[in-house]
Design a protein that fits this description.
The chain is mainly α. It has a domain of 119 residues: Four Helix Bundle (Hemerythrin (Met), subunit A) (Up-down Bundle), CATH 1.20.120. It is 79% helix and 0% strand. It is built from five helices and no strands. It is rod-shaped and about 100 Å long.
Length: 185
């Protein structure tokens, strides 16, 4: 793909060729043209050329950069979601857990979520809204449900396993809403 410098040169060359063609026809044709130049046409041509250069040099790269940032940020949230399902799925499937590794997994998940939310805020894709607060609350709720010793008797009780799965589903919904907010930005 040609760089912006080459695009400018190509546009200028095409404009020059078109202008030369029309001047050539104007001077060497059997048809008679009036020798009056319409003042209204010249500024409109100049404005059109300047707008074409502005769009190709300024707007397109800015839009492309913002689009790439959105896609990357959405991938961060999808990756968080996949990590959440993997790590919680392993714990819930085993029906028992090692508290040290469990705490480590959830510390990682909370940190990953927090850093992704902060990136989204830093780049003005989201602000401090209800979705952010609810996401952080839901991840903490899973941790609280599964680490409360009264819910644990050697294995995770089915009702608390179900509560944890409910929180995971709520997180999925909130991530979908968050991605929708980012897309609308």
């Amino acid at each position: 793909m040609p760089s912006n410098k080459h695009i400018d040169k190509i546009l200028l060359a095409l404009f020059g060729l078109a202008l030369g063609f029309f001047i050539g026809i104007y001077n060497y044709t059997p048809f008679e043209f009036q020798k009056i130049v319409n003042i209204v046409i010249n500024p409109s041509i100049l404005i059109t050329v300047l707008l074409a250069i502005y769009v190709t040099r300024i707007l397109t790269p800015q839009n492309e950069k913002e689009k790439q940032e959105k896609l990357l940020l959405m991938e961060y949230f999808k990756d968080f979601q996949a990590q959440l399902h993997d790590r919680c799925g392993d714990i819930l499937d085993l029906n028992s857990f090692d508290s040290i590794s469990f705490n480590s997994h959830f510390k990682f998940l909370r940190t990953k979520l927090h850093s992704s939310l902060e990136l989204a805020k830093k780049h003005n894709f989201i602000n401090n809204n209800e979705i952010n607060t609810n996401l952080e609350r839901e991840i903490t709720s899973i941790w609280e449900v599964l680490t409360d010793e009264s819910h644990y008797n050697g294995s995770i009780k089915p009702e608390y396993k179900s509560k944890a799965e409910g929180h995971i589903i709520k997180i999925d919904e909130l991530i979908f809403e968050l991605i929708s907010v980012i897309n609308q930005h």
